[in-house]
Amino acid sequence: MTRRAVGTDSPFNPPARPRAGAAGLLLACAALVAAPLRAEGPDVRARLLLPSAVAPGASAAVAVELTLGPGWHVNSHSPSESYLVPTSATLSAPTGSFSPVRYPKGVARRFSFSDKPLDVYEGTVRFEAELSVPAGATGAIAVRGVVSYQACNDQQCYPPARITLDGDVKVSAPTSR
To answer: pTM here?
Structure first.
C-alpha cells in the first residue's frame, strides 16, 4: 500500500480549499446588510390649501388636495361596495368653524380583482370646505386637516392610512381703498 502525503489529492484527502476566515465572513455579511431592501409603497401625497389671510367675520375656501401617482387609486368617499374603505377628509381649528366637506364624484374603474367597476379617485382630487372666521378673531388661526384613505394599485391594496396636515391662516382687517 502506498501512502500519500497529507494534503495531496485522493478520495480520502480532497484538495485543500482556501478558507474565507472570520474577516471574509464579516465582509460578506456587511455587504448583505448594507444593500438597501426597498419595498415600493403607495405614491400618495396631500397638502392643505389655505388662503393667506381672511378678514374677521368673513369666510374663505379651504381644501385638502390629495395626489396619487400613476397606477394608484383610493376609494371614493362613497365607495361602490360596503367592504371598501372610504376616503375622508376632516378639517378643524380652535377658532372659527368649517362647513361640511364637499367631495368630488369618483370615477368608475374596472380592476382585475372585482367583478364590477369601483368608484375611485385617481390623479389629483380636492376636498373643499368653507372656513368661517368669527368677527372678533385676531392673529392667526391654526388649521388642521386629516385625510384618511386606502391606497391600491391593480395588484393589491395597502392598509388604511392617514395624513395629517397643519397650516395657519392670518386674520387681518380688510384694507380700504
So the answer is: 0.74
